């Protein structure tokens, strides 16, 4: 039987919304929440440890959300290993894990959340409908778990910006905590998709971090020049997008910025699309 942080109580594993609501009612004090799509890695665990440090109790969801995948994307091949994930969470003393199936999450009607401008730009252009799926499932999870704080990695910078805006605009009444990107020893940002890279592409993928390091070292300068610096380092790769945007609002920036900007990369290695980011100030 899985045990929570005290080692005395079993970790509560809920597969249904009804079970989750009943279990959540018994969690006293502040509750931290880490929503994931499973196949956990050290990046996820850094969020779990932050929730553990800052909240009285903490919960994790494991749900591969089909509505944020396009028709030609990797839903079927997305890596999954629930027993491994549960063992990792037990080691951190998690209180509650929500592991629903798609039919449980989407058992209702057709109402969805429109992510607005932030869902249509950048990755939203590359992956139409993606952020509508993200906004809808995160809203549903927040309504079910009712956390005081929720934790997201900065690697998915556009997602983090969107969720912060959604929580503020819809008066959801919780704090969104963005945590630093966790990287492999060679600089590659940790991602569940990394396991799908071929050995050759895995050897190439740290070029994303090198490109961002080079841009960060260059400092604030005309955004067109920053983009050129990044593209020069990425030369020879299948670059989907290099964008320099205002770090707070993701609006377009021209000339030399007078506030921090974020460099957002999307590069394809074979069939695997990897993203990365860096705030430059």
UniProtKB/TrEMBL annotation:
Subcellular location: Cytoplasm
Gene Ontology annotations for the cellular component aspect, listed alphabetically: cytosol
A single GO BP: pantothenate biosynthetic process
Classification via Pfam families: Pantoate_ligase (PF02569)
Highest taxon above the source species: Bacteria
Positions bound to ATP: 37-44, 153-156, 182, 190-193
Main subcellular location: cytoplasm
Sequence positions that bind beta-alanine: 68
Record field: catalytic activity: (R)-pantoate + beta-alanine + ATP = (R)-pantothenate + AMP + diphosphate + H(+)
Binding site for (R)-pantoate: 68, 159
Pathway(s) of this molecule: Cofactor biosynthesis; (R)-pantothenate biosynthesis; (R)-pantothenate from (R)-pantoate and beta-alanine: step 1/1
Gene3D superfamilies according to UniProt: HUPs (3.40.50.620), Pantoate-beta-alanine ligase, C-terminal domain (3.30.1300.10)
One MF annotation (Gene Ontology) recorded for this entry: ATP binding
Residues annotated as catalytic: 44 (proton donor)
Role of this protein: Catalyzes the condensation of pantoate with beta-alanine in an ATP-dependent reaction via a pantoyl-adenylate intermediate.
Entry similarity comment: Belongs to the pantothenate synthetase family.
Oligomer status and interactors: Homodimer.
Listed name of the protein: Pantothenate synthetase
Organism: Pontivivens ytuae
